[in-house]
Specification:
Elements lengths: L8 E2 L8 E8 L13 E8 L5 E6 L5 E8 L5 E8 L2 E3 L8 H13 L2
Antiparallel strand pairs: 1-2, 2-3, 3-4, 4-5, 5-6, 6-7
Length: 112
């Protein structure tokens, strides 16, 4: 679970090993405006005792998204599964603005 770093807050887990990170992502600052994307999203990244990584993205009226992902040795994220409003979706079906969120997750996890 090194990808989440030592700055992670402890979350309630069965054995106390789950960790979470919470942050906002300003999509307007990433060039998304109007109906292309919500102006801001709230992101919660968790790692559990199985080293499973998931990001839950609350996007207001644009909905709720989640991604299961892994982090390579260079700190890059590989999105493995996607969910839109709790329903499994193809990763390719995620909106374009999710890329900006993934970039922010990479920066947070690597401490940049």
């Amino acid at each position: 679970m090194g990808a989440l770093g030592s700055g992670m807050a402890q979350a309630d887990g069965h054995d106390g090993s789950a960790r979470t990170e919470h942050f906002d992502c300003d999509l307007v600052a990433h060039g998304f405006e109007g109906e292309q994307a919500p102006p801001n999203v709230y992101v919660e990244v968790s790692a559990d005792y199985n080293d499973s990584l998931v990001a839950i993205i609350a996007a207001g009226s644009a909905g709720r998204y989640s991604i299961d992902f892994s982090v390579d040795s260079l700190g890059r994220i590989d999105v493995e599964k996607a969910y839109i409003e709790g329903m499994r979706s193809d990763v390719d079906e995620l909106p374009d603005w999710i890329d900006a969120v993934v970039d922010k997750i990479e920066r947070v996890l690597t401490g940049e």
